[in-house]
Amino acid sequence: MSFLSDAERTEILAHTREQISRLPGKGRRKSELLRRLGEPAAVAAGFTPTEPTVLKVSSGRQFLTRILAWPIFALSVLTAALLVLGSQFVALAEPLSFGYVDGTIFGTLAELELSLGSAVMIFAFIPVLFSLLPLVVHGIPGLVLQVIGALATTAACVLGLASLGAFLLPLAVLLWAQVFTPLLMMRGSMASPGPAWLICASAALLAAIGYTTYRGLQGFTGNAWLILVPAAALAALALLLPLRRRWSHIALIATGLLVMVAGFIAALPTTYEAPLLWPWLAGAMSFAGGHLALAAGMWHERARNLLALL
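RESULT FIELD:
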């Protein structure tokens, strides 16, 4: 038992003495009593510490990058498919014309987007490419590529902010989060989003939901509750973000996706032909907020499990 600690050897001896005290004497020899207790090696083996299993993802940064990357990639593919193919089936945004909100920044952006034409849609593939690069390119080169992807997506948002570029806004938020989240969460082994971060995220998401709801109601020909009820559900789940409840984060992600699907249905010519931009933004921003909160919770849980093995 030399490979065991003092505490484990003491525990084995106490256990053995207890068993001996329970055995009836009846003239048995000491050797017979010890034989009935079992071989020392077999008894000691039962007290051998269990080695922790090898983690599939050994690096904390790699773990965070992986759980962030795949959902971002999925939303990027969905957004790119929508911008390239969706205009054939639904109204993506309000139609633009030269002179749109003349004299404002949105008027300038609208004219710029009209000048670029369909080339704006090419920018939709930037997040698709850059969201998964950190999984294969690590270290400083990977971080540089992440920043480039986030900058390029942000530029695409600005160029097309008056219309189609706004669809990339949730992806820009996620790509910047993919850059900074590992840097912030790796500060300590038990790092988790503080109350201030979660309260700010909740307030920002509520503002986005409120604005998109207001814009979506303008010119909508259906009943207002078709917009207000999903918006209220998103707002209620956004308020739960600071509570760090996993079920609420998953519910926020799922509800955001459902709002995006409902918005697509409402944008069909056979229904309300409402612009898809506003429900898409509300749903995608909710998806982003829920995904980031869920990823932070998974990191915190992983850190606690690792410390429990020490």
